[in-house]
Write a sequence for this structure.
């Protein structure tokens, strides 16, 4: 089956979620990938949304973080304060699954502002739940489309920390979680290099060239010595994804929401 | 004991110019009708607190009711930007808006602390983030037992909190179901809490352990069916996703926004008249 680069991105991200893992899900691309994982290889994955549902099993993608179906299909619905206090800060989240407006080479995330904070060129929505998810989840996955404008050398603002300034900075900050372990894009998969914690390309999606990745990255991107090619989406994965998107469009009259 | 009165009377009596006001509801049960009434009554210089400003605060900011916003995620969910919020922050229209920006975990903890009667909340947060550099009220505290440095943020203690809920009984006891967000904490953190409800019934029939706010903890209960629109009340209405999309072009320009609130909010007597006017337009 033929597939789009966006489908490749979602499928590649979904594959990173292990069956049975407990996942704190952001709305938009993370929610789409996490639900695809649940509908394919990881039926026992536990999806937690910051509005309060624990173990949500929506049949269509939520447009907002508080759609009613998340509550109706959840194992339990708890107050938002409890989500952050007991379940995230309490150390019960295996994977934090985040989107971003911009990311840098150490996996730090900006969702706050482009330009000066007090005289912004573009005012973005802000932090939401991401800073503490990035800090306290045992590990973090980041999913976003790759371009010069989204993969930048220097962030105007660090909303949610990844590996900070690189090296052992994260450890020195005293953060409990391991931080971002992969950035999944429509072109490739990046993972932090041992020691420096700088993100390097470890797998190219089928048909993508190194030049394309270089052109669409704002820093001098490096490639791992052992550069893999991502396995193309299987028919099972594509059918599940397209069915999910079709159900979502039928239910909402639009595609699943971006936070 | 909560007084069962109209929303107009509740806003007149319990909200003053300059108050710190929290209209809470996490995507679900957003108290939209209360924001309309604040605009109708021309309330001014409000400090608005809310995790997700959403359309409900885009309205209040664009209408010139707010001098300060305390928040943690300011977008139109599933659609994009809040244009009135952005215009106020980026261009100072209709007036300068001071912003105090937090994360969700921070504000959720700050409401818990407020409801607990504490001056501040403590949480493991912000290490490595730039937010403390632009928000001076995010500070740190050292654990006296372990030496761990943790974030300390002031509790939220609004003068007035308004929430929307499914139903109340005739004494004013309120039952909230579905996604609860921080509403219980926000109500208990406030000096005065107003609850708008879908329905007033003889018996709440609240299940054991349900989220019930007792009447004696509330200032007022107001019957406003559909008062969360375009948000929803689980069991009563669906989220009006179309309205969230339609809001984008309305709020995008100052002129279309002002024309809209003049027609639909300032030009209607109350929320039921607003609903009728909106339904008439949608039928066209």
């Amino acid at each position: 089956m033929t597939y789009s680069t966006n489908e490749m991105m979602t499928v590649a991200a979904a594959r990173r979620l292990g069956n049975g893992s407990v996942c704190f899900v952001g709305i938009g691309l993370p929610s789409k990938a996490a639900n695809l994982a649940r509908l394919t290889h990881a039926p026992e994955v536990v999806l937690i949304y910051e509005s309060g549902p624990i173990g949500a099993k929506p049949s269509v993608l939520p447009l907002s973080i508080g759609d009613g179906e998340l509550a109706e299909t959840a194992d339990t619905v708890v107050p938002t304060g409890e989500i952050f206090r007991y379940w995230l800060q309490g150390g019960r989240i295996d994977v934090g699954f985040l989107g971003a407006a911009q990311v840098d080479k150490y996996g730090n995330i900006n969702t706050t502002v482009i330009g000066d904070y007090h005289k912004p060129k573009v005012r973005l929505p802000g932090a939401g739940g991401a800073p503490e998810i990035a800090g306290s989840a045992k590990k973090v996955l980041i999913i976003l489309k790759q371009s010069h404008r989204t993969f930048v050398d220097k962030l105007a603002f660090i909303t949610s920390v990844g590996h900070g300034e690189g090296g052992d900075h994260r450890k020195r900050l005293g953060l409990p979680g391991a931080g971002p372990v992969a950035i999944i894009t429509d072109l490739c998969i990046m993972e932090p290099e041992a020691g420096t914690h700088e993100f390097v390309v470890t797998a190219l999606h089928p048909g993508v060239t190194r030049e394309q990745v270089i052109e669409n990255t704002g820093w001098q991107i490096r490639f791992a010595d052992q550069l893999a090619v991502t396995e193309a989406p299987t028919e099972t994965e594509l059918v599940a994804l397209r069915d999910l998107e079709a159900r979502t469009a039928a239910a909402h009259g639009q595609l699943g929401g971006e936070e | 004991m909560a007084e069962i009165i109209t929303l107009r009377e509740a806003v007149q009596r319990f909200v003053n110019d300059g108050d710190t006001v929290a209209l809470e509801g996490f995507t679900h049960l957003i108290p939209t009708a209360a924001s309309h009434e604040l605009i109708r009554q021309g309330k001014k210089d409000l400090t608005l607190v809310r995790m997700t400003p959403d359309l409900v605060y885009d309205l209040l900011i664009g209408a010139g009711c707010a001098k300060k916003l305390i928040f943690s995620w300011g977008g139109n969910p599933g659609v994009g930007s809040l244009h009135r919020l952005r215009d106020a922050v980026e261009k100072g229209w209709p007036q300068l808006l001071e912003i105090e920006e937090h994360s969700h975990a921070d504000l959720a903890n700050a409401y818990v602390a407020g409801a607990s009667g504490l001056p501040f909340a403590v949480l493991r947060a912000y290490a490595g983030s730039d937010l403390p550099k632009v928000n001076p009220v995010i500070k740190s505290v050292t654990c006296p037992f372990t030496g761990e440095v943790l974030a300390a943020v002031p509790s939220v203690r609004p003068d007035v909190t308004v929430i929307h809920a499914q139903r109340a009984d005739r004494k004013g006891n309120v039952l909230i179901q579905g996604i609860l967000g921080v509403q219980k904490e926000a109500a208990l953190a406030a000096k005065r809490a107003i609850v708008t409800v879908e329905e007033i019934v003889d018996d709440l029939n609240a299940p054991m352990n349900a989220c019930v706010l007792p009447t004696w903890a509330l200032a007022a209960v107001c019957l406003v069916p559909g008062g969360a629109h375009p948000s929803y009340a689980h069991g009563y209405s669906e989220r009006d996703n179309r309205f969230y999309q339609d809001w984008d072009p309305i709020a995008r320009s100052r002129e279309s926004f002002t024309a809209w609130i003049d027609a639909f909010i300032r030009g209607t007597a109350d929320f039921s008249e607003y609903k009728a006017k909106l339904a008439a337009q949608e039928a066209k």
Summary: Residues 5-186+233-249 of chain A form a domain with the Glutaconate Coenzyme A-transferase fold (CATH 3.40.1080.10). Chain A has a mean pLDDT of 95. Chain A has one domain: 5-186+233-249. The radius of gyration of chain A is 17 Å.
